[in-house]
Structure formats: structure tokens, C-alpha cells
What does this fold into?
Amino acid sequence: MEFITYFLSAVFGLLSTAGFFVESIAKNSIRSQFDRVEQLQVRVDNVPSYQLVQGKLERVRIAGRGLWLIPEARIAALELETDPVDVNIQRLRQRGQLPTAALRQPLQAGVRLVLTEADINQALQTPRIKAVLQNLVTRYAGAFLNQGSQRYTFVNPRVEFLENNRLRFQVELQQEGETQTTDAADGRKLPIRLESGIAFVSGRRLQLIEPSASIDNNEIPSFLLGPLSQSLTEQFDLGQLEQSGITARLLQLKINPDQLEIAAFVRVLPSPSLQKVNN
It folds into this structure.
């Protein structure tokens, strides 16, 4: 959502700009939000220029390929298309105001996102992403490790996209202070494997389908995976965004051996303060 609001701020801040220049400057503004961009197209369908000055657009379409949010993470493809947009330009230009506070009517958009297995695995090898995932593994798998005060370092993380909307995640945990060449029970690397189907109930809540897991090649009983599945379901619930005036629904989740594709709908409500002014 921050990406959308930055885009709107760039477009509507240019009060006297004609259609061609709106697209050109908006494109540059969107590029600036990414560390690196391979391809980017922006199409702004605006009504007569006097309505543009009033903060109205018919539709905004964005299509990008090879978008790097940070140096470690690449998005293979991103497509975004909005419904008509109507904002209060004065509010949009006020410093300290959230861009969503300028909306005169709900902002609605469709989003399509594509991530490849190769890009994800490349990101998993970087220190920043490893640190995040190490915290997750420690949080969710720590109870199964049962290693007392021993601490482990993330080694060789890898994700594999499977058929039927399933994926497999594998990693090795190595006791801190040991070298990667260390073997035997007192210092060897501990392999962890997680595999599951992925779905979203009602387009909003994550559901793990037939999950399985093993630690040190020992299968974890299914009844022990229940609390893990429940915790992940609670963490990945798009309904939590509604408290902030954002409705997000996953329309499609498709995983095949090459890539993961997501199609979603997003709706952002105007802030209550502006709604009162407009009424």
C-alpha cells in the first residue's frame, strides 16, 4: 500500500501537468521507490485536464518486470490497475498527512505479483534475508529442537516450488561456534524440512494443506504440527488490515515448479476526518 500512496503523491502533486508528462514523471517517481528496475510501463488515463487539477483520474495502470525492492529481493513481475481515483490535492500536499487521508472516495486496485523460485533462492543466500528466516525458524521450530541453550546458525536455505500449489522449504542449522566441515553428533549440521500445500480461506486467511516436517530426518508427528499451522494461520490473516481501513483479498494463488503467482484485490477507505469534510 505504501507503494500506491507514493505513486498518488507524485501524480497529483503536479497540478498543471498534461497527460504525457504525468506518465513520464509518475514513472520516474515509481522507479525511485525501487533499488533497481529492469522494465517499467505506466499508463495514466485522465479525464480533461481541469479534472486532473481537481485530483481526479479515470485509471492508473502499472506493469513492471524485474523490480528490486532491496538489493537482495527481486520481483519477477508486478501489475497494478486502479479504478477511478479521486483525492483532495491540498491534503495530499500537506506534510505529515498520510496520503490515504486525502482520498475522497475508496481507492480500489487489482494487483498481480509473480515471484520465481530462482529469485527467492538467491535472496535466501543473503545475510539480511537469512537473519529474518533464522528468527522465524527459531520461533516456530525451537520447541522441536530441544537443544537447551544451544544456538544455531542458518545454513543452505532453499525453497522448492512443487505441483498442486505445494512448496518445500529446507535448511540446515549449525551449532554456533562450529565450522561447516564439523561432523558427528556434537557439532554436525541439523537438517530441517517443511512441506505443505498453500491456500487462502475466503481469500484472506492462510491455510496449510497436508503439511509435513522433519528435523534431523525424523518426521514430526502430525498432531504436533497443529499448533504451528494454527500460529501461521493467525499471523497471515489479511482481515487484520481492515482495522486500518484496508480490505485485501487474494483472488488467485498459483504455484508451479517455476514460479509463484498471486492475484489480489485491494480497497483503501478514506480516513474518517476527510469523509466528514466531504459530507
Helices lie at 2-12, 19-32, 49-53, 89-93, 117-124, 127-145, 222-235, 272-278. The longest helix spans residues 127-145.
